[in-house]
Design goal:
This protein is of the alpha/beta class and 383 residues long. It contains 17 helices and 16 strands. The chain starts with 9 loop residues before the first strand and ends with a helix.
Length: 383
Amino acid sequence: MAVDTSTRTIVLDLGTRIKLGYADKPSPTLTVPALLAAATSRDRHDPDLPLHSGVSALLRAPFPRDYTPLSIFSTPPHLALPIATPDFLASLLHPLYESHLPAPIRSHKASPLVLALPDHAAVPRAAKERLAQELFEGFRHPSVLIAPRAPCVVAAAGSPEHAVVFHAGHSGAAATAVFRGYPVATVVADASGAALDRCCAERLAAANPGLEGEALAWAARAVKERECYVGFTEEKSSERTDFMLPDGNSSFGLGDERVKVPEAFFNPAAAKTGTVSAQAAVLQAVKSADRELIRHLLKNVLVSGGATKVRGFDYRLGFELGRGLPKGVEANVSDASEGKRKREDVAWYGASLLAKSPNFSKLAVSAEEYEEHGPAVVMRKCF
């Protein structure tokens, strides 16, 4: 069944931040946190942890300063709120569609949709089928393509036949081996932007006892994004400087945190963030594919996601991979964005390319196919 692509295709990257826009644009129209939780909460597993829809916060400006984004796929499990369910998704998307993309809701001829999901979040079959039901019956999309992020990143990088994608965002990280556009193996890594935030906050609090609450949460994110860098190997920084807080009147000391915090990617056990490093995830994903593909996959190790923007990340990942490979086997690590766009937008951009590719009609599920086969059709098509 051919898919009608005459109307503008909507591209939606669903993660810690929702990225929404049209496929004929070079970047998302809107980026907003899916969920917000109080950054000053001492215990993230507190049953009374306040959660708010980031969409609601956006539409009800001003944006709360003391809140931090959470992924709808990694919210504390004790919370009763059906975070990653299609009903909750609908509650997020309806106000976005109405305020920024009015045509799909209000016109009789809706737009096709490409939906990118995080590789690190294993969405069960029942959830995907219920999601398809909501998208077709609730939002009336004439066609839907549900894709993991890795094939989208590969598309953004020029669609090499073999590639390994290491994507690290705020809520999670994963390495995925991709062959001819299809993911063949995914291994979750124990590092993420949120993990680095926690690691940085712990180190800053230990070195600066007076730094706490909202100031500590702000400082941890700011230091991670502005000051941290990845060393050639695990190293120390003997230089200690002062880092100014937003009030302009107070500061705190900053030293080894700049190089110790990013080590969570390459030595998560030492950082107490887990056991699977970035290089281990890549190597395991490669080894999970056919042996004949290993050398080809390692020629294109593509890095994406906002958490990988730490200076020196790509070079260090290549170095660590080289230490774990047999003699004569090399890994080529490169920025999937090629410096042309934000790393955190690469998956969205790749999804927009899939929407415009000749294979879209083969991958996407049409409304007619949905009517004939029901929600289970998304497990036979898409990725």
